[in-house]
UniProtKB/TrEMBL annotation:
UniProt entry keywords in alphabetical sequence: ATP-binding, Kinase, Nucleotide-binding, Transferase
One BP term from GO: carbohydrate catabolic process
UniProt cross-references to CDD domains, sorted A to Z: FruK_PfkB_like
Record's GO cellular component terms: cytosol
Chain's gene name: pfkB
Matching NCBIfam families: 1-PFK, pfkB
Molecular-function annotations in GO: 1-phosphofructokinase activity; ATP binding
Organism for this UniProt entry: Streptomyces tirandamycinicus
Protein name (database record): 1-phosphofructokinase
Family recorded in the similarity comment: Belongs to the carbohydrate kinase PfkB family.
Keyword hit for GTP-binding: no
Domain of life: Bacteria
Pfam families, sorted: PfkB
Domain Carbohydrate kinase PfkB: 22-290
Stored InterPro entries: 1-PFruKinase (IPR022463), PfkB_dom (IPR011611), Ribokinase-like (IPR029056), Tagatose/fructose_Pkinase (IPR017583)
Amino acid sequence: MILTVTPNPSLDRTYEIPNLERGTVLRATGERMDPGGKGVNVSRAVAAAGHRTVAVLPLGGAPGALVADLLAGQGIETAPVQIAGTTRSNIALAESDGTLTKINAPGPELTPDESRALLSAVAAHARTADWIVCSGSLPRGLTPSWYAELVTRAHESGARVALDTSGPFLTAALSARPDVVKPNAVELAEAVGRPLASVGDAVKAAEELRALGAGAVLASLGADGQLLVSEAGTLYGAASVAAVRSDVGAGDASLAGFLAAGGDGEDALTAAVAHGAAAVQLPGSVMPTPSDLDPAAVLVTADVPLDRAITQQGSPR
């Protein structure tokens, strides 16, 4: 079972438009409404792959109730923590050429009691979890060290932890030794304090995160592939994509595939790349099902193309 923790979930509305023109009336050619937040997306992808998942998340107001209804409609088990604030609503504008513009709301501020209730909800399900996924930004009211405390408690319960966050939330949690961290290129560069021009630069940065406490680093480099840097060595994976429709949640789908395939080694990296490649070809934040995957199209090798330029830097949280 994969338990996900999303401290700052959202109600995501995605509109497909021909192109974005400022100051004009835009008419959408398609629209979707999905439960959002990185951990929520991981749960959705795990469920779509046919595995059990439980989503722990704070919910409040009408948007929070709608998020709960949407998750229930997808057959996802939730452990909601009711809060006084209102769950945020995010907007994504997806252009026909694959360009995505996102407007992310800040979200509610959690009280100390709500913070403790969230940790208690995780503890109540942790002992039945194989992996605990801690994903996304922290809402107002939670300090950067909150993830570190969560990682420590998860390890005490015997679960492995995958951490997908950025900035001070990531660096503060490394000392708690998460089993896997999953930055994109921008987040990896931010964590080491310098730009990354090549895959080789990304490998060195990942090794630095391991030296700071990360057990393994699964780094998404956008169209330039993925890296898995662990105690066993470094693997590189890539797959060609005919057309990108939306990259919302693609990294989360990739992490879900990685963990569902065991969370270590060549098979897990193959699953991660296959899930990510499938996700970018689907609308909005739709998560791929097994029929969408093409693992045969994935190349995974220990012969890492160190000189390959990173052409798609990704986007920060």
